């Protein structure tokens, strides 16, 4: 079922525009998630659950560009593998406060930029 929701929330092929690509994914997800409200609690939690989820993760992480590090080359999803190989758990309880603060800072920085602060 999550794969179905991920297929409908498809991230676009990376265009090189770091703002346009996540914006397109967010719009696709916004359109799809009302049809799958249960999915909100599962998307982005843990490693990719299937090919659609892996494709979306690959494309969204790729938007940030190559960080200059090479890791194990699967040939198919090298960007999510960076997270896995770094032994990062973005859903760990220990990281939740840090992720919240980071997201909050991003929102506030965006508002500050808009108002010219």
Describe the structure.
The chain has helices at 2-8, 20-32, 51-62, 78-85, 93-115. The chain is mainly alpha-helical and 117 residues long. The protein is globular. The protein has two domains: 2-86, no CATH class; 90-117. Helix 1 packs across helix 3 (51-62). The chain contains five helices and no strands. The model is unreliable at 66-72 (pLDDT under 50). The protein starts with a helix and ends with a helix. It is 54% helix and 0% strand.
Strand elements, count: 0
Number of helices: 5
Mean pLDDT: 78
**Span between termini:** 44 Å
Oligomerization status of the protein chains = single chain
Biggest beta sheet summary: none
* Class from helix and strand fractions: mainly alpha
Proportion of residues in helical segments: 40-55%
Q: Which percent range describes the beta-strand content?
A: under 5%
What number of domains?
A: 2
Which shape, going by the Cα principal axes?
Answer: globular
**Cα radius of gyration in angstroms:** 15 Å
Series of secondary-structure elements, N-terminal to C-terminal: HHHHH
Q: Poorly predicted ranges (pLDDT <50, ≥5 residues)?
A: 66-72
Topology:
Elements: H1 2-8, H2 20-32, H3 51-62, H4 78-85, H5 93-115
Helix pairs in contact: 1-3
Structure summary:
The chain is an all-alpha fold. The protein is built from five helices and no strands.
């Amino acid at each position: 079922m999550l794969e179905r929701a991920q297929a409908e929330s498809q991230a676009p092929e990376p265009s090189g525009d770091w703002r346009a690509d996540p914006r397109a994914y967010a719009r696709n997800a916004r359109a799809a998630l009302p049809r799958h409200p249960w999915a909100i609690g599962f998307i982005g939690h843990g490693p990719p659950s299937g090919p659609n989820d892996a494709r979306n993760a690959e494309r969204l992480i790729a938007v940030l560009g190559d960080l200059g590090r090479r890791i194990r080359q699967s040939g198919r999803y090298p960007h999510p593998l960076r997270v896995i190989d770094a032994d990062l758990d973005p859903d760990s309880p220990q990281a939740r406060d840090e992720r919240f603060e980071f997201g909050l800072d991003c929102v506030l920085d965006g508002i500050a930029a808009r108002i010219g602060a």
